[in-house]
## 1
Amino acid sequence: MVSRALIVCLLVAVLAGCGAAPSLLGPATGTVTGHVQLRACGGAYRAEETSCPIHPYAGVTLTFSLTSAATTASGQAVTTDSSGSYRIELNPGTYTVRASGTGDKAGGLAGAREVVVAAGKTATADFVYTIQLL
């Protein structure tokens, strides 16, 4: 009886180490990190400017909703810091990410994107939004 229990424990440990079974001690979540930046182009006083300066976009709310979920209304959110950086821990899966900033009437900056989260891994998702100055 004890030998069967020992064999089962060894089998579970081997399978968990190979990735064929859930890890008993490994992380159950993954991490998504990144930056949100704002690119300001053009403008009446910058007609000669050929490049667009990029600035950190602080205060942007990123909402992560599971793509496979029946509704995208619920999700986990994170807000960028003063350097435009964010970090969030999520369960494994494919997520639709929507960004909304201060004064964003449409509720989404330049549409949604997808991010794949794997347990114990870090995914990077950077966002750059371009505005045309008058």
Note: The chain has a mean pLDDT of 79.
## 2
Amino acid sequence: MRATGEFISPSSSSAEVEDAAPAPDAVRCRVAANPLERELHLRIRMEVFVREQGLFAETDRDAHDDEPLTLHVLGLCGAEVAGTVRLYPLGESGLWKGDRLAVLPRFRRHGVGAPLVDFAVRVAGELGGREMVAQIQLANVEFFERLGWRRLGAVADYCGRPHQQMVIRLSAAADRSPAPG
């Protein structure tokens, strides 16, 4: 899957983006810029969460996908779309949710997941967020802890499988890694 048009975060301008072609395995993240890219995002989620993992029977789409403040992020490995994450503000002031982190199987050893998580955390912080929460599959809890997330409460059922709610302070996350560009 290929995507065109580059911007790093909602606040970046085209002058901040390098024109050079990416290295073959370089991982870059950006918010889906048009309906085609949003569809690529949704197709990756369908492949991972419906077909591969069976977390959802027919689709993982929900009302958050159509909310105007929801950001659908693409992770690119070189020029190919390799993964996704979705983020959106919750009703509470400054609280954001990150979810639907999905990396296609053939890209799972290319280091796509961490840049997607870091991008979501950084963008939510840029947009005024103070904390981000996520429901994490148990096999991925240590991965998120290495990225600065902490466990919140006990393991609970989410989409029919055990998940750990986790949280990260956005200001602390923004301090630990520089913004791309």
Note: Helices lie at 35-52, 113-126, 141-146, 170-176.
